[in-house]
C-alpha cells in the first residue's frame, strides 16, 4: 500500500472534474468445450462533465472490483459525513485512501 500511495503522489496524471456519472453493464455468453453455457459481465463507469455534456473517462470493472469499490465508496462517504459535521477545523488537508484489489 505504501508503494501505491507513493506512486500516486509522483504520477503526472491530472485530476479531471466530472459532476455526473453513468453506470452500465454488459453480459457476454458463450459455450465451453462441453457445450455448457457460461456468462461473464463487466460494470462500466462513465464520468461526464455536465458543463459541456462530454464524457471525461470510461472505466471497465470486473464484478469483484465493482463490489469492492461499492464498499470503499460507502466507507469513504461515511467518514466524509462525520468530518463535515464536525465543528473542529482540520489542522491540515487530509487525504485518506483505500486500496481496492
Task: Name some characteristics of this structure.
alpha+beta, 3 strands, 101 residues, elongated, 3-stranded antiparallel sheet, single chain
Summary, kept brief:
This protein is an alpha+beta fold and 101 residues long. It has helices spanning 2-10, 63-85; strands at 20-31, 37-49, 54-61.
Explain this structure.
By secondary structure, the chain is of the alpha+beta class. The protein folds into 2 domains: 16-61, no CATH class; 63-101, no CATH class. Helix content is 32%, strand content 33%. The chain has 2 helices and 3 strands. It has helices spanning 2-10, 63-85, and strands at 20-31, 37-49, 54-61. Strands 1-2-3 form a 3-stranded antiparallel β-sheet. It is elongated.
Write the layout of secondary structure elements.
Blueprint: H1 2-10, E1 20-31, E2 37-49, E3 54-61, H2 63-85
Antiparallel strand pairs: 1-2, 2-3
Helix percentage: 25-40%
Q: Report the principal-axis shape.
A: elongated
CA-CA gap between termini: 11 Å
* Biggest sheet strand line-up: 1-2-3
Number of helices: 2
* Overall radius of gyration: 18 Å
- SSE ordering: HEEEH
Strand residue percentage: 25-35%
Domains, number: 2
Largest sheet: 3 strands, antiparallel
Q: How many strands?
A: 3
Amino acid at each position: 500500500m505504501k508503494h501505491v500511495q507513493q506512486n500516486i503522489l509522483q504520477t503526472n496524471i491530472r485530476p479531471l472534474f466530472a459532476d455526473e456519472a453513468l453506470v452500465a453493464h454488459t453480459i457476454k455468453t458463450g459455450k465451453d468445450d462441453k457445450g455448457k453455457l457460461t456468462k461473464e459481465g463487466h460494470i462500466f463507469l462513465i464520468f461526464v462533465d455536465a458543463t459541456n455534456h462530454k464524457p471525461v473517462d470510461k472505466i471497465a470493472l470486473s464484478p469483484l472490483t465493482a463490489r469492492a469499490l461499492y464498499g470503499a465508496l460507502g466507507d469513504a462517504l461515511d467518514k466524509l459525513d462525520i468530518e463535515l459535521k464536525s465543528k473542529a477545523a482540520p489542522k491540515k488537508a487530509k487525504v485518506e485512501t483505500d486500496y481496492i484489489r
